[in-house]
Amino acid sequence: MKIVVDTNIIFSALLNTNGTIGEILINSKDSFEFYSCNYMRYEIQKHWEKLKKISKLSDQQLTDAQFHLFSRLNFVNEDLIPDSIWEKAYLLAKDIDVDDTDFVALTLYIKGTLWTGDKELYNGLKNKGFKKIYNTFNLTNIT
Fold this sequence. Notes:
The chain contains 9 helices and 5 strands. By secondary structure, it is α/β, with parallel strands linked by helices. A 5-stranded parallel sheet has the order 3-2-1-4-5.
């Protein structure tokens, strides 16, 4: 199953690599293929100092955790996604959180399922009839 991982999932995994989210990402190779977009890398770098402060990890420890998690992800260049999919993704995400358009577009493009910890995004997309979305609870029930 193709799973698109959004930034808040990676934030959570970086803050606690031994938690449920880290466990799913690291130990479910046989069940899931994980994908994300290059935009997620930018968001991680943008919030690097905040991640260090909250996690109380050194730069090296956080870099090691990031490397380990990123090795489980297939990154897709957003430039490959056709304009028609971008338009559909924008319409789905614009009044929920426009910053999540990349993840919705990638989900549509690879015909996958979006994994998010963002309740507003999860509920907003569900309310719009978008069925290809999971939260961590959903994933733990199918692993």
